[in-house]
Design goal:
Radius of gyration of chain A: 22 Å
CATH superfamily of the largest domain in chain A: Thiamin diphosphate (ThDP)-binding fold, Pyr/PP domains
CATH topology of chain B: Rossmann fold
Largest sheet of chain B: 7 strands, mixed
Number of strands of chain B: 11
Distance between the termini of chain B: 50 Å
CATH topology of the largest domain in chain A: Rossmann fold
Structural class of chain B: alpha/beta
Helix content of chain A: 40-55%
Helix content of chain B: 25-40%
CATH architecture of the largest domain in chain A: 3-Layer(aba) Sandwich
Number of domains of chain A: 2
Number of strands of chain A: 16
Strand content of chain B: 15-25%
CATH superfamily of chain B: Thiamin diphosphate (ThDP)-binding fold, Pyr/PP domains
Strand content of chain A: 15-25%
Mean pLDDT of chain A: 90
Radius of gyration of chain B: 19 Å
Shape of chain A: globular
Oligomer: heterodimer
Chain lengths: 414, 279
């Protein structure tokens, strides 16, 4: 398993390096930074369709790809875009598409075909709030969609989730690498804030090495014809295809888990969060530390494969875990599966494009701590402990953030 | 060594002169198509044209969803499978990154004229330099004979058991005429497999549609009116008579547009071609 300490910015050692790094930084918008990172990663072809909040990515590619004599097509729909990507990728080209949540739903069909036929591609989802047309505010409510299959059939795709624009740039190159190494679509998911925000980033790019593909369609000159397909009407043959896919997914789960830990060394509590929620969590952790709460951050970088073994190991020495998401609680299910009841798992989330404040998260953390302390003291004094009226691992958001509901009752804005 | 019509070696002593043989690009195997189905004829015509134009070695073809889903089992060229209706988009992706390839799509009427309407219209509108073979048999054959967008008025199918009623189910769609309106379409024609003379004309259309791509033209489409004896509830012979009669009446055969390749800007870079002037 990899820790990802080397990923992203902030790896400078000396004052000189720090100064050089400061001077080489430019202010870039997330969407544009991801686009340029893809260009620098050697993306041969980009296909897209306008949707807020990812339009700057499309617009950047429209200019840059044609400037470089590469392929850019604005498709008639997200269906068109991802199927163009399927065709281009089938010939061995390095291909990317991007969209936001409703558009990504339309791409589910081709994602399933590409997973089934082993076609590499990078799909960037700058997530907005749903369901339906929803809104254009930031959200992480596509976690299930990204990690649990997206389209039909038994398949997974690696899902990378940066929490800064610098890391998004690095992970864009990683996404191409994984796609080609494992012959699979790869998703890079970032909420609308990461797409829209500007941050100083170092213009440090990476171009993954190119490999010759023995499966790419190039015209059957001097070799037998190649077929890229997902159909097998013979159940025995199709089961073999599925078994091969599952083998591939086990390999990915074994080698490609990425996560980051922060202030976990002495932690009694951990916040599990990714993307923008992890940024909020860092601020909340700083405040909590001032108040003497020993809490750290566990940040999955690959949402699939989820760093479940690492989290399980950590959970053995924790009093409790708080999961923070820009959703009703999706990743928290994977957290609970990993923790297997070893410690209580609470949740705090906001929806509809709302983002939790550090104070909200701190409040949720305190509520979790109070509850775990009551339980721990009850376990100490009462023997045998009565079964809890409900499992500790099923905190509702109403338990940890009563003020959210109170506000909703008052009908007021935050 | 000479080969007989089944592609089998015949004794060297034979004095027979071979006048009709299987084109090399057609794999030597029986097809899954129903007895009397026109797909086999269209496959063969396409194979003959591909051999005559020396295309197989640099062809990348796109297989549809529908009866022709296994086209790659019969045509011995590189193939990618497209989701239902998406072949023109898949072909666009191939075209843009492989300017040197011969890019071919093969679709049925449910695939092209219903679920894939947006993809075919916009590939044509962009003037993608691809050759599209469109087999129209007026029915969803693969799934058991349901009504297609091209089903004739009054025609009984499993999903229009009392016959297609315009008030409830609308009218058959002549999508080739619709596409021919677009300046990106260099060539659009409709032929049929109904009889030997028509098959000869259909082959000429397919050849022209392939030549357009070779010559750097825009989008080229050939619609082949075909039959579905099983789905239509007819014998093969009856289905051919039906094809020659009411089907051709509803879908007139002939070249609908041929704008000539000189009207097309060169689109051999990855860059989208500028708007095409009307020829």
């Amino acid at each position: 398993m990899k820790s990802d300490r080397e990923i992203g910015l902030g790896a400078c050692q000396t004052a000189e390096e720090l100064e050089a790094s400061r001077r080489s930084r430019v202010l870039m918008k997330g969407n544009e930074a991801i686009a340029e990172a893809a260009v620098q990663a050697g993306c041969d072809a980009y296909f897209g369709y306008p949707i807020t909040p990812q339009c700057e990515l499309l617009e950047w590619m429209a200019r840059r790809m044609l400037e470089l004599g590469r392929v850019f097509v604005q498709a008639e729909s997200e269906l068109g875009a991802i199927n163009m990507a399927l065709g281009a990728a089938a010939t061995g080209a390095r291909v990317m598409v991007s969209s936001s949540s409703p558009g990504v739903s339309l791409m589910a069909e081709a994602m399933s075909y590409m997973a089934g036929s082993g076609t590499p591609m990078v799909l960037v989802n700058i997530m907005r709030a749903g369901p339906g047309l929803g809104g254009i505010g930031p959200s992480q409510s596509d976690y299930f969609q990204a990690t649990k299959g997206h389209g039909h059939g038994d398949y997974r795709v690696p899902v990378l989730a940066p929490d800064s624009i610098g890391e998004a740039m690095e992970l864009t190159a990683t996404a191409f690498e994984l796609a080609e190494r494992y012959r699979t679509p790869v998703m890079l998911v970032a909420d609308g804030i990461l797409g829209q925000a500007m941050e100083p980033v170092e213009l440090r790019f990476r171009t993954p090495e190119r490999h010759a593909f023995d499966w790419a369609l190039t015209g059957a000159a001097g070799r037998p014809a190649r077929i890229i397909k997902s159909i097998d009407l013979d159940p025995e043959v199709l089961e073999k295809r599925n078994l091969a896919l599952q083998h591939k997914y086990r390999e990915i789960a074994r080698h490609e888990v990425r996560w980051e830990g922060w202030q976990l060394e002495d932690a009694e509590f951990a916040i599990v969060a990714y993307g923008t929620a992890a940024r909020v969590a860092r601020s909340a952790i700083a405040k909590a530390r001032e108040k003497g709460i020993k809490v750290g951050l566990f940040r999955p970088i690959t949402l699939w494969p989820f760093p479940e073994r690492e989290l399980a190991r950590l959970s053995r020495r924790l009093h409790g875990i708080l999961t923070v998401e820009l959703s009703s609680g999706q990743m928290v299910e994977d957290v609970r599966l990993a923790v297997e009841g070893r410690c209580p798992v609470g949740f705090h989330g906001r929806m509809g494009g709302m983002v939790p404040t550090p104070d909200e998260v701190l409040g949720a953390l305190k509520a979790l701590r109070a509850r775990t302390e009551r339980t721990r003291s009850a376990e100490h004094h009462a023997a045998p402990a009565p079964p809890p009226s409900r499992p500790l691992a099923t905190y509702e958001s109403s338990d940890v953030a009563p003020w959210v509901h109170e506000r909703a009752r008052r009908g007021g804005r935050r | 060594m000479t080969l007989n019509t089944l592609g089998q070696a015949t004794p060297a002593a034979s004095s027979a002169r071979l006048v009709y043989h299987r084109p090399d690009v057609l794999r030597d195997r029986s097809t899954h198509y129903c007895p009397g189905c026109g797909h086999g004829i269209v496959h063969r015509l396409l194979a003959e044209v591909m051999m005559e134009l020396d295309l197989p070695a640099h062809t990348i073809a796109v297989a549809p969803v529908g009866c022709a889903v296994f086209a790659y089992d019969y045509l011995n060229v590189d193939f990618v499978e497209a989701p239902h209706g998406r072949a023109p988009a898949v072909a666009t992706g191939i075209r843009r990154v492989r300017p040197e390839a011969f890019v071919l799509t093969y679709q049925g009427d449910g695939d092209l004229a219903a679920i894939g309407t947006a993809e075919i219209v916009h590939a044509a509108a962009r003037g993608e330099r691809i050759t599209a073979i469109f087999v129209n048999n007026g029915i969803y054959g693969m799934t058991g004979g349901q009504m297609a967008p091209t089903t004739l008025l009054g025609q009984r199918t499993t999903s229009s058991p009392s016959g297609r009623d315009a008030a409830l189910m609308g009218y058959p769609i002549r999508i080739t005429e619709m596409l021919a309106q677009l300046p990106g379409v260099t060539y659009a024609a409709r032929g049929t497999v109904a009889d030997v003379a028509s098959i000869g004309k259909l082959k000429a259309m397919i050849k022209r549609a392939c030549q357009v791509q070779i010559d750097g033209g825009g989008f080229a489409l050939v619609e082949a009116l075909s039959n579905c004896p099983v789905g239509w509830g007819m014998t093969a012979e009856e289905s051919m008579d039906h094809l020659k009669g009411p089907v051709v009446e509803a879908f007139p055969v002939g070249v609908i547009v041929d704008r000539g390749t000189s009207a097309m800007p060169a689109a051999d870079t990855g860059c989208p071609a500028p708007a095409h002037p009307e020829a």
